[in-house]
Specification:
alpha+beta, Butyryl-Coa Dehydrogenase, subunit A, domain 1, Butyryl-CoA Dehydrogenase, subunit A, domain 2, 4-stranded antiparallel beta sheet, 3-stranded mixed beta sheet, 9 strands, binds flavin-adenine dinucleotide
């Protein structure tokens, strides 16, 4: 057994942590309060090369292993969740299918500029009537000669209102359920493709989220991102573990940011003539948070390590996302208690962490879905 990060991984953490401390953390409160996409920060950050984190060096990437990628996701989320969401969308879900299946032309037009941070990517699964249940997807893809015609409305799309291109999940036949799903590339400017309503959120402010409307959008056959028709669910399975583990790493990032605030406050806040950190009940909170965060960290990095080893990690990825998120929700709650009334004040960070952490409950699988999945994996199919 070896619980050590490699020297390169340690070095990577040091560099990205310093970058986060220098250019993201100081802007986090303002990003949250303004709820505006931080274009200036995006451009500055894009120049550092991280947008190509998981792609090969030949195409401008960093060729990071999964453990290193999780270090990145944890650190950037510690800085600002809103900003992290937009960046991670470009790095992972928004570009993965273009890298896997896009033609060289598509890569030149969309993937490489996204890796340079010059274009903004997104992925569209969710609709009004389908979230967890992708088999209920109603956005249709209909053949018309060599082209496809897409019709439907996507909801809750991160970067949706400002994206340059989107990977869109659509079905060739709603009655086929999971067996009719496909991913298509749709670029900004394609007739019939437009942003709809912007969604104003409780947390993760600063990332722009909203509807995307597809009204008779015509795309050429090369925009079908897959080797075969109707295999979308198989292709999604290739990155689901990475998405879930990544969400666990984001949970660690939020938890660490909140925990640090709570720890420092417990040292400096005086009540009844003593720092509150000298009271056993406050120490118990610190002890429980530190212990549970350590356990969450082990699960997240164990799942990433299994991915790097090429081992099955479906169960570990689901557990990592589920457990790290629950730990994070507890930590952000406890820190607002340690802060007393100041935990309720907008000028301090704990309320932001408290709001931001809620989003972890949805992406990568809700906790009801994840528990059902883990339970089924353990018990086996009985029906
Ligand atoms: C900030 C944010 C950003 C997002 N970004 C994107 C994005 O970029 N692209 C995108 O496509 N989507 C995005 N989403 C949407 C997200 O993926 C969905 O919210 C998620 O898939 C859950 O779907 P839903 O919200 O429709 O909930 P539903 O699936 O309608 O679930 C509602 C409730 O029912 C429960 N439930 C459902 N099925 C079962 C079951 N079988 N057993 C037990 N309980 C069940 C759920 O656990 C939940 O508690 C985003 C969401 C948020 C909050």
């Amino acid at each position: 057994m070896d619980f050590q990060l490699t020297e390169q991984q340690e070095f990577f953490r040091k560099i990205i942590a310093e970058t986060v401390d220098r250019i993201i953390l100081p802007r986090a409160q303002k990003i949250d309060e303004s709820d505006e996409f931080p274009w200036e920060l995006w451009r500055e950050f894009a120049q550092l090369g991280y947008m190509g984190l998981r792609y090969p060096e030949e195409i401008g990437g960093m060729n990071a292993d999964k453990v290193t990628s999780m270090i990145f996701y944890e650190e950037i989320t510690r800085g600002s969740v809103g900003f992290a969401q937009s960046v991670i969308m470009n790095i992972l879900m928004g570009t993965h299918f273009l890298y896997r299946f896009g033609s060289e032309e598509i890569k030149k037009r969309c993937l490489y500029p996204a890796i340079r941070g010059e274009k903004i990517a997104t992925i569209c699964f969710t609709e009004d009537q389908s979230g967890s249940d992708l088999a209920a997807t109603r956005t249709t893809a209909t053949r018309d000669g060599e082209d496809w015609i897409l019709n439907g409305t996507k909801m809750w799309i991160t970067n949706g209102p400002i994206c340059d291109f989107a990977t869109v999940l659509a079905t060739t036949d709603p009655s086929k359920g999971m067996k009719g799903l496909n991913f298509f590339l749709v670029e900004k400017g394609t007739p019939g493709f437009s942003p709809g309503q912007v969604i104003h959120k409780l947390g993760c402010r600063g990332t722009v989220t909203g509807e995307l409307i597809l009204d008779h959008v015509r795309v050429p056959s090369e925009n079908l991102l897959g080797e075969e028709v109707d295999k979308g669910v198989v292709y999604l399975g290739e990155i689901l573990n990475e998405i879930r583990t990544m969400t666990g790493a984001m949970a660690l990032g939020i938890a660490r940011a909140a925990y640090q605030e709570g720890l420092e406050y417990s040292r400096r806040r005086v009540a009844f003539g003593r720092p509150i950190g000298t009271y056993q009940l406050i120490r118990a909170k610190i002890a429980e948070m530190a212990t549970e965060m350590e356990a969450a960290r082990l699960l997240v990095y164990y799942s990433a390590w299994r991915m790097d080893q090429g081992l099955d990690c479906r169960r570990e990825a689901a557990m990592a996302k589920l457990f790290a998120t629950e730990v994070c929700l507890k930590v952000v709650d406890e820190v607002t208690r340690i802060y007393g009334a100041n935990g309720f004040a907008q000028e301090y960070a704990p309320q932001r962490h408290f709001r931001d952490a809620r989003f972890l409950l949805y992406g990568g699988g809700t906790h009801e879905i994840l528990k059902d999945f883990i339970g089924r994996q353990i018990i086996g199919r009985l029906d």
